[in-house]
Amino acid sequence: MVKYKKKILILVLLAIFVIGISITSVSAAESSGGNTKAKKVSQSDVLKASKNIKTYTDKNKKLPNYVTIKNQKYSMEEYMHLSSLTIYYKYKQKKNTVAVKSGVKSPKSPSGSKINGKLNKKQFSTYNVNAYKYIKNYNRAPNFISTKLGKMKFQTFIYANSRILAWSADNGGKLPNTLTLSISATHPINKYFPKYSSSSDSSSGSGSQVVNPTKSVSMTNIFEASNR
């Protein structure tokens, strides 16, 4: 009888042990599953994200703090990497998927000059290669990108890329032949710096700050991606 009770006790303890391991495993999977970004996304995913950024910016006169791709949130710094690589691939007519670079740091001190003029496809593609290389080397977004029109501020560059790729999304995936820009360094887009971290979660991203808010102005003719 004593031996029988010991066997029952051992079986009960084993059952409790197995159940405990199972619960721990499930909890660990649930806690880590939502924080891991994909290693790559498709070019079409980046185009869709670009349209969302353009739409948000046109409406709110500022960049969003993040953009969602396949249920994962990407900061504007991470989007800069994705969009720059996508534009390069499209310029080279490559169908490659786009590598994700997580945790890209914010530019230390975004700055730039008034941008007014036209860039052709080769030029804005080259500038995007420069942006991609900078992020790859330093794991940080640049303060500005040097162009023939002047130093293009971080926020201006992000919005320009969203316009290029939003146009691409509506035109069979090809790039526009030209991009016409007319925007000052103190434009409302450049006065707001988007901030997002993986620990923040709100409709526009938490931890953001509006610097010297101004009245909304029309975005008409500020940026124009054309096929002329």
Automatic annotation (TrEMBL):
One Pfam family, short name: PMBR
Protein name: Uncharacterized protein
Biological source species: Methanobrevibacter arboriphilus
Native organism taxonomy: Archaea, Methanobacteriati, Methanobacteriota, Methanomada group, Methanobacteria
